[in-house]
Specification:
Layout (H helix, E strand, L loop, with lengths): L1 E6 L10 H9 L8 E9 L1 E4 L5 E4 L7 E11 H10 L7 E11 L4 E10 L2 H7 L19 H15 L2
Parallel strand pairs: 1-7
Antiparallel strand pairs: 1-5, 2-5, 2-6, 3-4, 6-7
Helix pairs in contact: 2-4
InterPro entries: AIG2-like_dom (IPR009288), GGACT (IPR039126), GGCT-like (IPR013024), GGCT-like_sf (IPR036568)
Catalytic activity: epsilon-(gamma-L-glutamyl)-L-lysine = 5-oxo-L-proline + L-lysine
Protein name: Gamma-glutamylcyclotransferase family protein
Length: 162
């Protein structure tokens, strides 16, 4: 069984952590390449200087911009790798939300998406930052890290039994 996931930041094609999506594709945990999409509603997307300008989507529908990203269909094991990589349900990391997007064919798809999972105080701080509609490493200073890559490889090996 697969899950549709909307990705908007460092996991997108050509961005610093796209190697993880590429690896899941090679291992057949993602069957098709990522497809372009945009959120149907507006959301605040920021890059936080306190976290090396990592892109953060805040679950405040109706604020911000429509967000450009990609849709992937990922296996349950592949989703587990991404959940671990994104720190699912850990304070100050990410939680899953449901989100509607318009795909490259103009069709609506319901997906899951990683949104910020922090305190209300932190959310208020993030909402004071400039909102963007599309994250690219070209216009942001985050470039990934060897620690991220090592962590991603370790959890992939653990979860996917490589």
């Amino acid at each position: 069984m697969t899950q549709k996931l909307f990705i908007y930041g460092t996991l997108k094609s050509g961005e610093p952590n796209c190697w993880l999506i590429d690896n899941l594709c090679k291992l057949k945990h993602i069957q098709e390449p990522p497809r372009p999409a945009i959120t149907k509603d507006t959301y605040p997307l920021v890059t936080d200087p306190q976290t090396d300008h990592v892109p953060i989507l805040v679950a405040r529908r109706g604020k911000g911009n429509k967000i450009k990203g990609e849709v992937i269909e990922v296996s349950e094991k592949g989703a587990s790798v991404l959940d671990e990589f994104e720190g699912l349900d850990k304070e100050g990391e990410y939680k899953r939300i449901s989100i509607a997007v318009e795909n490259h064919l103009g069709e609506t798809e319901n997906c899951i998406c990683y949104a910020y999972n922090g305190s209300e105080k932190e959310i208020c701080r993030l909402l004071k930052l400039d909102f963007i509609s599309s994250y690219t490493a070209e216009n942001q200073s985050y470039s990934g890290s060897e620690e991220d890559k090592k962590f991603g490889e370790e959890i992939s090996a653990k979860i996917l039994d490589q």
